[in-house]
Amino acid sequence: CTIEPNIGVVNVPDERLKRLEEIVNPERVQPATVEIVDIAGLVRGASKGEGLGNQFLANIRETDAIIHVLRCFDNDNIIHVDTTIDPIRDKETIDIELQLKDLETVEKRLERVKRTAKTGNKEAQTELEILLKIHATLLQAKSVRTIVFGEKEEEFVKTLQLITSKPVLYVCNVDENSAVNGNDYVTKVKEAVANEDAEIIILAVGTEADINELEDYEERQMFLADIGLHEPGASKLIRAAYKLLNLQTYFTAGVKEVRAWTIHIGDTAPQAAGVIHTDFEKGFIRAEVIKYSDYVALGSEAKVKVAGKLSVEGKEYIVQ
Description:
Elements: E1 6-11, H1 15-24, E2 28-30, E3 33-38, H2 53-61, E4 66-71, H3 87-118, H4 122-139, H5 151-160, E5 168-173, H6 184-192, E6 199-203, H7 205-212, H8 217-226, H9 233-244, E7 247-253, E8 257-264, H10 269-276, H11 278-282, E9 287-289, H12 292-298, H13 301-306, E10 311-313
Parallel strand pairs: 2-8, 4-5, 5-6
Antiparallel strand pairs: 1-3, 7-8, 9-10
């Protein structure tokens, strides 16, 4: 019920960083991070400004993806705003509010584009077609991410900043007994989002919060193993969010620092260099690349060179 969103910057868990640290023994280690914004709950009518509607929608518009936590457990001690437990209804409540907000955005844009399109402006006519397609989809209570756009269309849709075009990760919040295999609620959620191109993960948030209270790492691992889990849910969540955003990691390793750099899947060598410094992208000549598996197997940069495993890549190289 807070007004201001809570922002958490979370390290992306990565076993490879630990291995690199053991080999290089650097002064510092810098993992990749994801910024997670916990936004206040949304009520019916938010698109018309009910509750914290307008502020909520402004906060959510600035994110790259949405993590939607759905209640998938029964517990009479924890009340639900709609009295009964129904994750599909909860999902739809949010969806409808976000769709209504997008509809408002699209209708405003349609008014302007229709006028320009009438003058015979080719670009406006193309935009009009896309806007009408989005408008029709939203009127059917479907989100924009269910539409398949061409590359050129995609560029225009991005400028609209529509909330329901963002990728979504559904987190089914379950009880302890359902932590591994889920339950009937989870099955219903999976069926409901089958056409949405969204990710789903199962977390027993309450149980994991209790486990996190334990100070001893070994003890925490033991309790996780007891409920059938290999790692904390936070790790699973962050990796899923990273994947959802189409992100990946590459590493630089030296005595000063071992560091994970975040890039998009499909980025070229100059783009990856630009993440370190924009000058590296502008003045890019070549990249010397070592595969992580070769580095770990051989144990040092010098040995990698001797084994002929260091490759020199140009501007077209897609970073792995």
